[in-house]
């Protein structure tokens, strides 16, 4: 799923996946959206940052990425994560051999994503949620819904990301997300995750000993 949000006179776009550019443009035209204030990237992977440059040109808006990953967006080449599960490790091994999602159009003027309270107005809060990548971020809109990138990947009954640079920090990211008070968590892969499901998933993760928390 890709998520676009307009609220209080401001609009943002997150995860402009390169393979879906035509479909996204057609949907925007149908909905009558023709302007954005910014493109916000949760992290620097090519399936998230791949069309940021094209959309920035089209809408004349800046691109923001987590500060620790902005150089990857600027260069147009990301570092793929390790597999956090046996299946994830197998898939990632294939992707690395094929160089899938590694290269994309660079964004030379990408800006570091500010974590300051109110940097994007009162309706949008940026929170650091490292785990999937070292510097992943999430965006909480109106205190109700959080755009979480790959901090959660909703497939079947699981929300644990199969790929992560720091899988031991995923539990911390989930704690952070729950601490925002949001009721709905919008994943880049898979359907929305309700608060109750995330709470149950965190409890199970902590029981398994994989959360990295004492």
TrEMBL record:
Domain of life from the UniProt record? Bacteria
One Pfam family here:
Lactamase_B
Return the Gene3D superfamilies for the record.
Answer: Ribonuclease Z/Hydroxyacylglutathione hydrolase-like
**Boundaries of each Metallo-beta-lactamase domain copy?**
8-189
Q: What is this protein called?
A: Metallo-beta-lactamase domain-containing protein
Supply the source organism for this entry: Gordonibacter urolithinfaciens
């Amino acid at each position: 799923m890709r998520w676009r949000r307009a609220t209080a006179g401001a609009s943002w776009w997150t995860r402009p996946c390169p393979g879906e550019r035509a479909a996204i443009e057609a949907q925007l035209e149908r909905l009558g959206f023709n302007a954005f204030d910014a493109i916000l990237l949760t992290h620097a992977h090519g399936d998230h940052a791949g069309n940021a440059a094209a959309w920035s040109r089209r809408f004349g808006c800046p691109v923001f990425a987590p500060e620790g990953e902005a150089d990857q967006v600027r260069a147009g080449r990301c570092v793929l994560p390790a597999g956090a599960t046996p299946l994830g490790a197998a898939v990632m091994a294939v992707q690395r051999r094929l160089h899938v999602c590694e290269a994309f159009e660079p964004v030379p003027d990408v800006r570091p994503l500010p974590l300051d309270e109110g940097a994007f107005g009162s309706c949008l809060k940026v929170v650091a949620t490292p785990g999937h990548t070292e510097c992943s971020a999430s965006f909480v809109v109106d205190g109700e819904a959080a755009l979480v990138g790959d901090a959660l990947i909703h497939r079947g009954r699981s929300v644990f990301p199969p790929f992560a640079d720091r899988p031991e920090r995923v539990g911390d990211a989930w704690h952070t997300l729950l601490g925002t008070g949001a009721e709905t968590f919008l994943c880049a892969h898979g359907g929305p995750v309700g608060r109750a499901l995330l709470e149950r998933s965190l409890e199970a993760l902590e029981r398994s000993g994989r959360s990295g928390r004492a």
